[in-house]
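Entry 14. Two folds queued back to back today. First construct below, sequence then structure tokens.
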Amino acid sequence: MKLNSIRQATVRAIVLGLCGVALTSAPAARAEDKMTVQSLIDRQLILDQITRYYYNFGKVDRQSEESFYTEDGELILGTRHYKGKEGIKQAYNRAPATPPAGAAAQSGAAGAGATPVAAAAPRERTAFNVAIENPLIVVHGDTATSQVIFTEYRQDKVGDPMKFTTQGKEYATWVKVKGQWLYKTRQIASGSNPPEGWKE
């Protein structure tokens, strides 16, 4: 029993020592920002949220994208701005594509007693993956900023190899709400320059 307690104390001391080494050797994001154990935990929690957000894409049963945002959150895609949870929901739940030309006319001309035109078969679901790289996360208490590079891969058809399709950057601001980190703003940019007015 005594030997087990000594082992546990030794493991705890090693873990605390490693945390101390990490804190003293890790350069602060800026000179005025002090790295703390809490800021390291918060950085990891934000990275986990980003990872969950991107893993969500392409899933059949996905978590609602707006649940990752604050009530007044904003999604910025180029010149389009989607504000609040309802706006963000609309950005991801677009109306289905319009039917091919002539399909509406055919169904309208069919009349009440005629057989309706069959709806098009649903498209086969192909794989869609998004990888994130080079996360730069700066925590300021209960707010934070993050930058990540994202790369999208898709299949042309099921069984085909994945193909690189798009790469860009995400710039985001974060707020801690009831212990959970949520996007305040999330902006997608295709170039390497940050959005105008961006501050870490």
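Second construct, same run, same settings:
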Amino acid sequence: MLKERVITGLSGWTMVAILVAVPVAGIAGLVALANPEPPPIAIAGLILLVLDAIGWRGLTIVNPNTARVILLFGRYQGTIKTAGLRWVNPFTMRRFVSLRIRNFESGKLKVNDHIGNPIEIAAIVVWRVVETAEAMFEVNDYEHFVHVQSESALRAMSAIFPYDAHVEGELSLRGSVTEVSQRLAQEIQERLSSAGVELIEARISHLSYAPEIANAMLRRQQATAIIAARQKIVEGAVGMVEMALDLLSEKKVVHLDEERKATMVSNLLVVLCGDRDAQPVVNTGTLYQ
């Protein structure tokens, strides 16, 4: 695998000064060519002018957070990351590579979660190039490669977790945001390492059930929420009944046998756990028939 080799090239401003001064000698040589028998220095002056014209092609501008990959007759020479005006061999090819942080949002993918439910999912991926040689020569188009491999990783990660946790403590796409993002980042980075790309962040941007099962799953979520609420209500009602019986016994307000306690417990639970407001009935007689 081709690895990045950082080079600096020569100072562009120094070479500009040289390339400006060289034509002075070249022009003097051209003047000498006008003589019937030009001296050898005239030929040298002409050669200098030709070399000077070629030398200007070696100047290249490197902007901040960008790089220039240098190729000489098909061979990789190195990468210039030093910002400013630089000079390299004028016969080389210089390819531009951006080192800036970039991001994109994947399309909404229709996949199956861990238990086979069809869902729609999308993600935001933040990345940048860190190895210019790998990015340029190991893959055909590193930007397209990042997009395709990110979607592939998103599909693979979706099959690991269920949409919702059905067991307490189970990781899920909807409820375990941090863990899911970490796993997604791991899946993407494994695929992008060969392209010289570093993943900075990956997170879910869209998550929903597929339209064909959305209504059924909504009813299921509602039923789950109702059951959870009922459990809390029953737990609270039992505690309140227990406290009422303890206080009645402690303060000796009334003495109830086991049968009357059972009746009282039944009535209190009906009042506390019912969906509707209870209609009180005032008993003006005795508890015992």
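Quick look at the second one. The longest strand covers residues 197-209. Residues 211-250 form the longest helix (40 residues).
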